[in-house]
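Final report, closing paragraph on structural work. Over the funding period we assembled a curated collection of sequence-structure pairs, and we close with a single example.
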Amino acid sequence: MDKHLYTEKGSRDEHVKVTSHCKPGFLDRLSETAGGMAIGVLMFALSFYLLFSNEGRALQTANSLNEGLSLVVSLEDVNFVNQQIDGKLVHLTGPLRTSKPLFDPNYGISIQAAKLKRQVEMYQWVEYDDSREYEENGEVKKETRYSYNTEWKSEVVDSRKFDREIGHENPSAKAVECFTAAAHDIALGKFLLSKGLIEEINNFKQISLAKLESPHAEIIVDEDYFYHSSNPRRPEVGDLRVSFFYAGLSEGESMQSPADVVTVVAQQRGSRLDSYKTKSGDELEILYMESLSAKEVFERQHEGNFMKTWALRVGGWLMMFVGINLMTRILHTLVDWFPVVRDLVNLGLKLFAASVATSLSLLTIAVGWLFYRPIWALLIAVLALVPIVLAKTRVPSKKNQ
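Its predicted structure, as stored:
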């Protein structure tokens, strides 16, 4: 049974805790390795699914984008609804428009935009920890250094989880909450945007409060923040500061600045823009916060698909590599008592895991391409054998031994 000892030292805002326990025996480490092997098997299996499904997704998305580019109709006049192309995939560019400004009556904020976000930060204690382990007198010791600092944080930090809460208590909630409001009738010319398109409007910019007065006597305006504090320069724990952000500046009766220009590719349904379902099964509902041609829109989408595909490929390979490492960890545990042998075995296992993960990842990708591009699939399959061939050539034959 492990024996835990605790020692502490330090000041109010920083202290060190040392815990110690007996060095685990061979059977204990073997038991831990068995648990790791189970996790390794699960990661190994999931990596195949991730790699295989990713190739199908990438090809389906590419086909959908090619289909969309071949069918899309560019609208010259966004203020005219052509019923003859109703139901078709359309491309249009123009300024955003909303009928009414968004406002927050509590702070006197009003702006003609698609979205208005109120961000509330509270001055709170934050705990940081840094740990290191070492062996001493046959025991494994863990030294953890805890430090505390006061910072502005938008989320509530639960001080009950601190290692030392006394002297670092935070309020359990904020007196003012964050929120994001969106206009109900966001339009591009005569066309209303769907909920999916509105979600893509996220170019938030902070609202300047330079010309605004304090809405209440207990609130102080300093730079671009409303402070619920007696002294913003020397805040106390529990003080609040509130800032506002807008996204999608739009045209309207109270417009004071040029509206943001957007580019949309979606299905025209009367005077509404909605998602378009391709023959491959994907839905096209695209919005960019700039003026782009139809060709440029689909080039951007292809680039995004390419980046996502390679990110998932790397993620799948890494999952397989870690899974194989965990499954073969028992061999490392068996020779753990011999430092030189242990290091050599550890290096060998990592090289083995990297080679097998690379070969199996390439084979899985090849299988994913087999029904779509068989020639490329065969080339990838051949490439998958390279790590195995290289590994075999480095193993000396029995005659040479």
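The first strand starts at residue 5 and ends at 10. The chain is about 35% helix and 30% strand. We thank the funder for supporting this effort.
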